[in-house]
Structures are given as C-alpha cells and as structure tokens.
Design goal:
Chain lengths: ~325, ~325
C-alpha cells in the first residue's frame, strides 16, 4: 500500500513538494498557483509558506503609494525597466480596490505593464484589497515571500494610498515611496491622507505641471514638523519626476539605493525584518488559538446562548468570558 | 479596612458604576469619558461596555459614506436637524483620517455641525481611523453602543468611503447611505471604490450640477447587475439632493424610514444585530485567548527563538506551532 510522502498533498493535485520546488526554480505557473492558494486561504497554503520560508529574506522590498492618478503604475514600470537593465529580476504586487460586482480587482492602469508581459524576469500580481477583512497585510506579505523565494531581486508593492492599505504596504516594505502630483492640492491633503509618516522618499510626479514647486515647498515645511521616529536620522527627500517621460527616475533609483545603504548600515533592515517576523509569529499563534478554540462543541454553546445575547440577558463580553473559562 | 466595591475602579478615578450610571442618564461628560476610555483601550473599557450592554440595541443606526467632498457632513447635518424636529435625539460618529503629525483627527467640515453645539439632544464624536490597526470597526461599534446606552434614538456614522472604513461602517449600520456627486466622474468610479455593494440607498448630492442625471442613470444600470445578496428583495433607490439647500432631504428621510420598515418586517434588523453580536463574541474570545496565551514565559520563549527565525533556521509558521504546542 503506497503511503503519502508529503503532508498536505491531496489526491489529484500537484504534490506540495513539487510545487514548492517549482516555485524555488522561479517557474511562472508554480508561482501563480502558490499565490492563488495563499489568496484563497487554502489549507495547504500554510504548508507551502512554511516550506518556502528558508528561501525568503533576500529580495529588496519597495512600496509605492499615493492618491489615485498620481502615476504610480507608470513610475513602477519605469523603475522596473531600470532594474531589468541592471540585470535584476522584479516582482510586482499591485493592490487594487475590488468590487464583488465583477468578482475581481478592477485593474486600473495595469495595461501599461504590458511591456513586461513577455519578460520572464518580471512577475506581476494584482491583488484585491477587499473581501477578507484585515487579511490583506498578511496575504500581501505572503505573496511577496513567494516572489522572494522564487528568486526575485526586487519586489515592488503598488497601492492607492487611502485607508489602511498603504500602512500595510509600509510595514511590508523596506523603502516606502509616496507619490504626489501638483494637483494633489496641497501638502495638507497628503497629511490628511496619512501619507506623511510612512514616506521614506517623496516623489512629486507630473512635475512639469503648475504647482510642483509649491507642493515641494509645502512638503519640506511639513517634514520639519515630523517627529523623528523609526527613521532614526533619515530625512525623507523630495524628488520631482515626470514618469511618463522617464524624467527624474534615475535620480529616484539612486535615492532608493541610498536609502537601502542607510538602512543596512544602521542595522535597520534587520530591525524591520525582525519586527515583521515577530508580527507574523503572533498572527500565526492567534490563528492557531482560534482554530483550537472553536470546536464544534463551543460553536454549539455559542449558538445556544444566542437568544440570551439578543435579549440582552448576557453581554458579548460576559459570554466570551463564559466560553473561554 | 475599606474594600473596593467595584471591580476595575482605580484610586482617584470616578468609580465605574457611577460613570456607567451617568452615561445611562445621558450625561455629556460621562459619555465623552466612556468614549475616551474605549478609544484608548483602557483596561476598564471592557467592564464599562459590559455594564452598558443591557441598555443597547434600541437606537437606529445609519451609515453615511462616499468620496471626499461629496457633502456627507452637510447631509448629516440636514438629517440631524429633521430628526431633532421629530423630537429624536441623535448621536453622530464621524470617522476621519488621522495624522500622527497633529496627534489627532483632521476635522474636515465638522465646523458645519456647530449649529448643534448647544443642543443637548445631539452628541458628536470624531474618531481617528488610524493608529490601532484593524481596531476601528470595534471602537466604532463601542462608541455607538455608548450613545445607544445613553438613550440616543438615532446614531449616524459618517466616513469617507475609500478603503476599509466604509465596510466597517456598513457592518455597524442598519441603513447605509452612499453619497456621490456628479463630479464623481461615473458610476465606474463608485464601483471601483467598492461602494456599490454596501449601499442601501444612493444619494447623488449637489444634483443641481451638470451630470447628475447621467450618474443616476449609470447607477441604475449597474444596480441591475448587482447580485441580490443580503438585501433580500431590497433594490437600493437613488435620490437626488442638494444638501446645502436642504433639497431632497425630506424624501431621503422618508426612504430611510421605508428601509427601516423593510428590515423590520423581514426580520433583517434582528438578523443584522445577531450577526454583529456573534462577531463581537468571537472578537472578545480572540482577545481573551491572546491575553491568556502571551504570558511572560511565552514571550521569553519567542525572544529566545528570534535569532533562529532571522537566520531562517525556523519559519514563523513552525515557531507558532512550537509555541502553541
């Protein structure tokens, strides 16, 4: 009687070990499949991530965020082109707002990425920001870890900077670039959107338009007010670009490398990774605890107490205590 | 030797029992204080919420969301004025993006609410959407529960609809109103922003501007594509308003009442509350489990294994397993 060699392997599926091996080889279909399993929170996803883990921690992670229409995709494409010229492979994780209407992400300007469609050195993944509440940060990290394990040298996260998404990205990235445009109105808007405190580098894109110098000046002013937090001595520079024509992109690339060197020299790269790993362990512990706790028995207990809960005879706080005791 | 009468009471603080009693009496300072304790996740917050719980579940909860500049505050003020004319008391929970720069929420158009400053029948609370990752939904609900326990008849949640915030609001509200403006571009934008699926009622505000009829038509078209989900037979109507002049607000109010009747008749009001309560219990259970788990001993264990984690000798997945075992 043949016994299954691999934990988590199901009948008729590619064995997990094979899949993991193929991801490590950088095989495109395997990468895409592993990502889908992670995104759908398939039971085997944990096993896959566990096996890929020893190969992660090598890629440099860049986050690009900003308001809609700031030219983030164009900038991502320009940076990608340059990384490719340097012989580096690139993974792009684009987080888009989703609508259950269409059943998928509304892919904004991804079309601009078409130039990389035939380049095996670039892998682009669009992710939905909706659906699984609070799970985005985790899935984004895992998708990036897959790209990392697959040998990509650089990973670029791209997301619209309104809400929670860009905070998740800032946590996942080593260098976070906040892209604004002269039309962003003023720096107050950026502050309101909560983008000031996550930026390692500011880019004022479409800088050939009126108001670029004004917004740059305002940003400088606001940065003087910024308390020096995690940055530990890093003052976010402000770059003017016209991404559509490639203007200012080389300088930006140099700045990204300078930030990397800064993080590296000061041990901050490891500190950031360490923080991410601790979060990850805590998150996985919580998940395990929840799994172990919600047995059929406890779910029935909750069900039985529901009428009391609805009739205000017991509070959710007291009921939780009762269940945990 | 005097013994403490109340659990959770600290020296020099108002006893919790008093505070809870004063909240129930609708005392403004007590309400504000209870909210601050909840927002700061003070240890006594749980006790307060537990004691207030029996008084909740009576207020009607309305969510108002939409893009920045859609006139949500003006609409909220107009609705509030009408509820007050009907003799109803109103609690307003305004969720704003925050910046650690200023240390607080950037209060957009709250100034318009100044008319209610001297009305004891209206309580306005601004909340920050940032800082405690993922905790917004919970704090928003608890602030609303405090207003509910304080006897407010109607609670209005107001938030910018980009990101996760409006999903949290939609879960917290009985009736969710999505406000758009002709300048929103087209309905595709609304779809992209993920607002379509949470709306019980659509409002096209600033409808005296060009394009109002077009966006209404587009919304109608998109709504025909909307799969009938939780709504169970409710087709979101589309109202045109000019909130600044109060035009269309009476009709909107009637529609809110019609939606309430619809939910009531079909048992959906209770179903929504039931769902919220189950979430709440699950959330509190998770919190308890985490508290119980992360003893000093386990935190030290994690600390000790960190070097192995960083050197890829163990994955966060395996380490979590190790800790839970």
């Amino acid at each position: 009687m043949p016994k299954p060699k691999e934990k988590g392997v199901r009948k008729g599926m590619t064995p997990i070990a094979d899949l993991v091996e193929n991801v490590k080889q950088g095989q495109i279909q395997a990468i895409a499949r592993a990502m889908s399993l992670v995104e759908n929170e398939a039971p085997v996803a944990r096993d896959i991530m566990d096996r890929l883990y020893t190969r992660t921690g090598r890629a440099y992670r860049i986050g690009i965020t900003g308001p809609p229409g700031a030219g983030k995709s164009t900038l991502t494409a320009q940076l990608t082109r340059r990384f490719r010229q340097q012989g580096k492979t690139v993974g792009i994780v684009a987080v888009d707002p989703t609508s259950p209407f269409t059943g998928g992400a509304v892919l904004g300007d991804r079309i601009r990425m078409a130039e990389f469609a035939t380049d095996p050195g670039v892998f682009i993944r669009s992710m939905a920001s909706r659906g699984s509440m609070g799970g985005l940060a985790r899935r984004t990290q895992e998708v990036a870890d897959i790209l990392d394990a697959a040998g990509k040298d650089v990973i670029i996260f791209e997301t619209v900077g309104v809400g929670q998404t860009e905070l998740d990205i800032a946590e996942a990235a080593d260098t976070t670039i906040v892209v604004l445009v002269p039309e962003s109105g003023d720096a107050i808007q950026a502050m309101k959107a909560g983008l000031m405190e996550i930026a390692d580098i500011f880019v004022v894109n479409k800088a050939d338009r009126e108001g670029a110098d004004r917004i740059k000046m305002e940003l400088e002013l606001m940065l003087q007010l910024r308390p020096d937090g995690e940055g530990k001595g890093w003052k976010p520079p402000i770059y003017l670009t016209v991404a559509s024509r490639g203007e200012g992109v080389d300088a930006l690339l140099t700045e990204i490398e300078r930030h990397y060197q800064f993080l590296h020299k000061n041990g901050l790269l490891e500190a950031r990774r360490r923080k991410r790993l601790i979060h990850k362990v805590q998150e996985m512990v919580t998940e395990r605890l929840k799994e172990k706790f919600w047995t059929r028995d406890r779910r029935q207990k909750l069900e039985k107490r529901l009428p009391d809960l609805i009739e205000n005879k017991i509070s959710p706080y007291a009921l939780a205590d009762e269940l945990v005791e």
